[in-house]
């Protein structure tokens, strides 16, 4: 009988693959102990897994790239429905539409689209992030001010819903589900098996890296914020201000420009005027080389990497949005936090928003933070288990002390310590998201600690209740 059959590659605790399959990207979490991990090869495997889990009243999680900051794609007991093998990337040059399997990793998507048609989608910088988690939560990257968030390029998707049926969502089919799937976060409504994206032509770009000594913080932060105005900064630029621990001795601005160096130089002129610059690198390259550069694949020094510190994967990261230029007390908080760090790999980044991101109305998709100036990423990385508490405390204290100057948080940088997470992640779109949740998952089968499942009245079908906890997610 269909409902009694799990298909695909089913990894059980006694399978050779089990140990490597139950570890999260973030090694802050010890290995999980799922009952089974189901590596789905096609939509029918997902359908069977959902029907099996629901008919057996077994808790489940969904996994694409496995990069959830809080390991929300894994659990103890229950099953992990892993779609990483559904990873096709097909491109139709006549329509410009790409069909992408929900388990595809970003680097494979960028490379395939480049090879197939010199086109791209505006995704994140990390090579191994999965397209499903990224897109469902929004998706920001180095061409987002020109082409929008990743979710803004979605024109349709296929999803296995809570009844175990494959449904389509687009502007004309199940538009409520389509709306919610663009920013409403993963694991709330169903299992996406495929996205359809409109693509964007790309060719050559210019990447840049500007550095100052750390004691120029008070010049660089206001200088960057004034320059990175969401409505006046050229859409072709995405820039990231990285403020690392004071002990590192420097601060930097790095970014990408969809054009040549001659066109970029005048646009960067206001930054060149910030006193005390110690390094300036402007380098043209192909779009795909820039992708690899920012993903840390090219053999460049660490400092080029857009997303924090590479090679460390034990971390606690969180986020907030800024809508105003920081007043002096906010810079003082930043200065103080970065001076008193639990280790050298502690930092905060400001990602420039605006441009195409801001031109989409706040309620046009479920992603609400359209009008932000920047997304702040508070990050800290460590290697020794005994340092964990100090790092988590630091990041939490830093985030909290910036609350007077920030609002909201990015669902893709999920943080189990954010108490007001429903408002912070979804803001004015929360009510509508809950209505979509009730319609598409009336029995509340899709559950996790920061899921919409926590906010709807339906009791849930599981035998055991999920315990929301700080550093255990199941
Ligand atoms: C090193 C690193 C770099 C990053 N860089 C960026 C960046 O540049 N820009 C950016 O915007 N974000 C970035 N992120 C954050 C990233 O967008 C989120 O962590 C995202 O949720 C990861 O998606 P995933 O599929 O890899 O993770 P997963 O852990 O597999 O999934 C994340 C969430 O989505 C759910 N989910 C997964 N697959 C499906 C599916 N098929 N259907 C429904 N729900 C599903 C999961 O259950 C989980 O709740 C980065 C994260 C890391 C760790």
Structure description:
The chain is α+β, with helices and mostly antiparallel strands and 474 residues long. Among the domains are: 89-201, Uridine Diphospho-n-acetylenolpyruvylglucosamine Reductase, domain 3 (2-Layer Sandwich); 204-407, Vanillyl-alcohol Oxidase, Chain A, domain 3. The protein has 14 helices and 18 strands. The protein has helices spanning 18-21, 43-55, 106-117, 131-137, 144-147, 175-180, 217-227, 261-272, 287-295, 328-339, 356-359, 388-401, 421-426, 430-440, and strands spanning 9-11, 36-39, 60-63, 79-82, 89-92, 97-101, 119-120, 154-160, 166-170, 191-198, 200-201, 204-213, 237-244, 250-257, 277-286, 315-322, 346-352, 374-381. Strands 15-12-14-13-17-18-16 form a 7-stranded antiparallel sheet. It has a 5-stranded antiparallel sheet with strand order 5-6-10-8-9. The protein has a 4-stranded mixed sheet with strand order 1-2-4-3, covered by helices on one side. A hairpin with a 5-residue loop joins strand 13 (237-244) and strand 14. Helix 3 runs antiparallel to helix 9 (287-295). The longest helix is centred in the C-terminal third of the chain and has 14 residues, at 388-401. It is globular. Residues 25, 61-69, 72-73, 83, 102, 124-126, 129-130, 132-134, 136-137, 139-141, 186-187, 191-192, 307, 412, 448 line the site of flavin-adenine dinucleotide (FAD).
